[in-house]
Design goal:
Blueprint: H1 2-20, H2 22-30, H3 32-38, H4 77-88
Length: 92
């Protein structure tokens, strides 16, 4: 779970930078993989990264892909919750 917190802090830094710098934000939206790598995140080759900026009064929810391990659903809500959030925040 420590990796998740590192990822979360890194993403928070990137968001703050995008809010403060329109040029950075434009690059982040246009080429997220390159910008995320510049900011210290590692993205696996072949992974498509999409960054969505919701409009005012719009909420964007991500439905993660179902895990290959069906036993995850049987291991309890805490484990499932950790897996769902980890799948949403896949940069490290």
């Amino acid at each position: 779970m420590a990796d998740f917190h590192v990822q979360q802090k890194r993403w928070t830094r990137i968001v703050a930078k995008a809010w403060a710098d329109d040029g950075f934000k434009a690059r982040l939206l246009a080429d997220p993989v390159a910008v995320l790598k510049e900011e210290g995140s590692s993205i696996q080759d072949g992974v498509d990264v999409k960054i969505i900026e919701p409009k005012e009064n719009e909420v964007v929810l991500i439905l993660p892909a179902k895990p290959a391990d069906d036993k995850l659903l049987e291991q309890g809500e805490e484990r499932l919750n950790a897996s769902v959030w980890a799948s949403i925040c896949c940069v490290d």
